[in-house]
Known about the structure:
alpha/beta, Rossmann fold, 2 domains, 7-stranded antiparallel sheet, 7-stranded mixed sheet, about 35% helix, about 25% strand, binds S-adenosylmethionine
Amino acid sequence: MEKFELDKTLAEEIRARALGDGFMKLVQSVRRNGKTFRISLRPVLIGGAARYQAEMNDEGQVRVKNFDAAGAAEGLEEIIAQKGARDLHLMTASGDLHVRVTRKGHVLVSRSAEMDRAVKVQPHDHVKKLPLTSFDSSALLRVIGLADGEGRVRASMRGKYDQVNEFLKVVEDVLKDRADRKLHVVVCGCGKAYLTLALYFYLVQALGYSDVRVVGVDRRADVVRAASEMARQLDVADKVAFLARDLADLGNAEDLGAGFAPDMVISLHACDTATDEALARGVEWGCRYVVSAPCCQHELQKAIGPQSDAAFAGVLRHGILRERLCDILTDAFRAMILRILGYRTQVVEFVSPDATARNVLLRAEACARSGQAGAVSDYLNLRDYWHVTPWLQTRLADRLDPFLKRFG
Ligand SMILES: C[S@@+](CC[C@H](N)C(=O)[O-])C[C@H]1O[C@@H](n2cnc3c(N)ncnc32)[C@H](O)[C@@H]1O
């Protein structure tokens, strides 16, 4: 391979443009042994601080690393010192620089006409941005598999992409009055970590949170292994951790990691009573916020049948109607229990019913007095009408019973 160094003046121009004002992006592609290795460097704001983000793409394997200015300058020297055939494209507010080094070591340089990209034409301002388009989420989306190598959202992942965006909108709204920029979040039944990793980046890069830690919990060791690897690839493994545990087996918040003090518990389609377990954990860990989109629910369907209520017999004899009624009752009981325990609770639709039938979401904030008479009597009236004991009541009996006994 021909030994080759960039001309000193050209190297100096690259340094000045990449580390100076108006730097937008630098991309270098290197072809080696028939393979292409691509590295890009761009300025980012992380928790309000100026940083540089490098993205390394080795034949589709993406890895991201964040640097301060000194680290970026060091990385830039490696880029400049790169040997062999390569293409370098540097974008700045004032224009583009292209450097192409051929296999034989010929250097072809081209510069665009002078530009003034700093003066940005805003897009139609009535177009509302999605959370995942409000910051540069391209590396995130590629690593978690919602986007393909070109950065396009995969058709097969469109539903999950929409769910994550809508969930993030709710989280943002729940947090809108929060002044503290610290947030520790537990994601219960995190599965493949789409929401877990997206939430971390959204909080830090779009909402400007500076102290964010997220722990994803799932009882499946294989998904936890894959999620941990993605956090490593995105260079956030020290901030986003994954635990292969059953939610029911977790003890106090210390189990989530040293110094981890959860402010929020979230869950997206955690199966069956795992949703209740997530709500119970949120209460027990003293979380201020609980946001949960429940999944399938079987428990009340065993307890409620055509014999349960003569007036409802016409509804309950049809499986699909009984299932829907039981889903509604389960979520109503969940909301009412949170309300008794001092959470201001709302039940909302978070995605269109065309996207998924599981489109109900509970959002709750601990900001009310526990055990209010109205909340308890509403609960007891509905519970006793149907002669059932919701799973969440049993799960949180030590906290609920004193209130239920007082009014029951
Ligand atoms: C339907 S998936 C949803 C995954 C993810 N939240 C999403 O929306 O892509 C439900 C996940 O909850 C996990 N899960 C169910 N019950 C659990 C429990 N008791 N403890 C921990 N994880 C649980 C499952 O292993 C599964 O990965």
